[in-house]
Amino acid sequence: MNINEIAKLAGVSRATVSRYLNDGYVSQEKRQAIKTVIDATGYTPSVQAKMLRTNKTMQVGIVLPEIRSDFACEMGDGMTSVLAEKGYYILLGNAKNSTSRELEYLNIFRNNRVDGIIFIPTGYSEEKQKFLDQLTTPCVVIGQQMKGHSCVCFDDYEAARNMTELLVRRGRRQYAMLAVSRSNWGVKQEQDGFRAVLSEHGIPDDHIIITETGYGISDGYQAMRQLLSRKPEIDAVFVAADEIAVGAVNAVRDLGRRIPEDISVVSLGDTKLAEIISPKLTTARYFYRESGVEAAEMLLEMMEGKNLTARVRKMGFEVICRETV
Amino acid sequence: MNINEIAKLAGVSRATVSRYLNDGYVSQEKRQAIKTVIDATGYTPSVQAKMLRTNKTMQVGIVLPEIRSDFACEMGDGMTSVLAEKGYYILLGNAKNSTSRELEYLNIFRNNRVDGIIFIPTGYSEEKQKFLDQLTTPCVVIGQQMKGHSCVCFDDYEAARNMTELLVRRGRRQYAMLAVSRSNWGVKQEQDGFRAVLSEHGIPDDHIIITETGYGISDGYQAMRQLLSRKPEIDAVFVAADEIAVGAVNAVRDLGRRIPEDISVVSLGDTKLAEIISPKLTTARYFYRESGVEAAEMLLEMMEGKNLTARVRKMGFEVICRETV
């Protein structure tokens, strides 16, 4: 069954069938005739042919750092809700925390396989900035500020300040931060926020230590063990993400120290892990799902040519006081 | 820049450039000439046009029950590893636990947007079976047996038996199961395995209770609270999935009962949650990531027309004895 045959059966011209399939104007009567034939014959138009005609793929490419991380899945859930409703499909680029794989996916998506891109970078790099600068496909970045591009960001500086304040108010003396070892706009903000609060409260520099670590639970575990063996007097720890904090909390417990009696731990994120561990994690809730929704809505506007001005949307956050301070 | 211009610059025919772009035979010399022109001009062939010519999309559609569930993401990670290496892209269908959305995605994928499908159903239904029976696109199902179709399954019966044995060996008397309320092949197997072991050990029927619940942490929490208020003498609980078990463990604790002193809890899955909660969960490790790898490899063979016989690949499992028995 092809367009010519449908046209013949419906008693209309080939051009009319083509307009019908491409959502162009067709009179009510002819529309009904074509629909009847299509329903009866079970004809399905070739998606590829339609893509070629309309120069639209109705696909959005998403490049995310790791499909197994809770926050990326939350964002993904938010995006798919918005995009699915508008008839867009998601082409998934799982970068597995590799910068080269990120660029590879961006490159593939650029070559007209998608109408738009949502990019959650592992971190900042000049290469990525340059790539985005040259990109003509609409693109929204999440969790990172890329100059000249539309971004949905978290308020890492202010959130870090708030969580650090909790430690100070608890009267702690020896401060440590487990930071993510990434060249990342947010990471820098978190460290700045942490340092600023401690400095404002007159905590001396030799009572502050910042260690970098990888992103997983086991990374947090190892980093915390090392930190406490090097500096057992630490009694306040600010961790850059829940996933890392889960490892850190386990390490503290395995070393026979009590949370929060001996050591206070705070974190950023409030993924589902935060409420599952014991004691429950005091952390800042980031609106991950909502950030996915925002990014998708921004992208939709861009793909429709409505709002092409680069914007930075900063998400709010919420301090959730549970049991670790 | 188009094919004609490239042909002119490279001093070859248009047909030769076309063969080059579609991986057909081109002499070494001409290949070099075309490559030089393409590299110099930065020409990227239209993906849509290539799809239309080759009738291949190099895309695989994945329909999964919920992007936020750990096991689905593990499977997704396994699939993307295998498929990305072969140059396939993943089109993501997030069904959000809705049967109608599952069918919607399958329907979209069928209309030649993808070369193959991996389907992780929320459960069994005749409608889905019928849909698959009529499907001509290669498809592999995970976690469910669909008659006549290639499936990667888990050994739910045997795993349920093994976990229930642990409860019996601990000398428990009042048994409960938190089952998933889905019409699902695996769910039936789990219940059968649970019942069979208890019957073999002469546990009377009135000491056995099976309750159905939803899939989330809060579902498990509520179901467990209700169960214990209805039948406080319960001392052994078999939960159908880690996610539900996390809620159940929290409910037991909130009711002031101790695990494992007062109540033993076992589960199925061994997602990352199992090791994070306290006490750590005794559960059966399902090879989720590996099942994604297996499914992708089966699908690759089918898409290449190599092995079209329907197969059922049953994954093994591993009993992980932690702290809840």
TrEMBL record, chains A, B:
This protein's UniProt keywords: DNA-binding, Transcription, Transcription regulation
Transcription listed as a keyword: yes
Name this protein carries in UniProt: LacI family transcriptional regulator
Presence of the UniProt keyword DNA-binding in the record: yes
Taxonomic superkingdom: Bacteria
Pfam family, one: LacI
GO MF annotation terms: DNA-binding transcription factor activity; transcription cis-regulatory region binding
Record-annotated HTH lacI-type domain positions: 1-54
